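Worked Example 4.2. Consider the chain below.
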Amino acid sequence: MTSSWIESFSYDATTGNLDIETKSGAVYTYGDVPQRVGEGMSIADSKGSYHNANIRGRYDCVRG
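Applying the procedure from the previous section yields the following structure tokens:
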């Protein structure tokens, strides 16, 4: 995966949690993310753009 901001991410369809680790080492956990959105992140050409358009500000987020 190539991204200028995102180092890695994982989605758990059972809990609806989407975890995003940034290049700086910060981890953000988004809750109640629908499966279609988690899968969309997996296939998006630009993970950062997809995050900005479909996830950020739309789901509760906890920075870990």
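The mean pLDDT is 95. The radius of gyration is 10 Å. Compare this with Example 4.1 before moving on.
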